[in-house]
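Example record

Each entry pairs one chain with its bound ligand, fe (ii) ion.
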Amino acid sequence: MSSHALHLLRTTFGDPANSGNAMSLQEAQELLNSWVKNERLKLHMQQVAHLMKAWARERLGLSEEEQHRWYLAGLLHDADWDQWPEQHCRRIIEELEARRQDPAIIQAIASHGPAYFGVEPRSAMDKMLYAFDELSGFTHAYSLMRPEGYSGMEVKGVKKRLKDKTFAAQVSREDIADASQRAAIPLEELIQFVITHQADTV
Ligand SMILES: [Fe+2]
Ligand SMILES: [Fe+2]
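Structure tokens for the complex follow.
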């Protein structure tokens, strides 16, 4: 969710001295539970987290520690949306800086909506968070309107809905196309990855 145009007005996040620091899964879940009451939003963040970790593991072969950082970026990227939508995503960035988290995680969160926050996705983590964010929510909305949910879902079905501007109209098709281009991954490949992995999260 990134429909509020809050430019962050800076381009570096976190302290390089904190590289490698990542809160435990328990601490992240406690933060999420205290900040986010909206269950749908929580599911969205869990789904994006799951996709991020799966990509880090399967496609990039990253270490467990790195996979965990990718997971945290996904899990916390919209953590401030529920209570402070007008401050999204400045509030969560400041919280993670105060908790001395790895700058890579904070940078990824800061760049998940370049058109809104004014921060360019640079690293692979940044680009994949941007790429999965809207597509994850969109694919989930599609699953909810299918009687069989994710079962038997095909890439072409998702693409057909993307062309239908009345379906999930709040989801920016421009952001989805832009994110796929920046990640240099064909949209079809991203959609297939989301379908395959998101089916495990419901
Ligand atoms: Fe967002
Ligand atoms: Fe999001």
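The chain has a mean pLDDT of 95.
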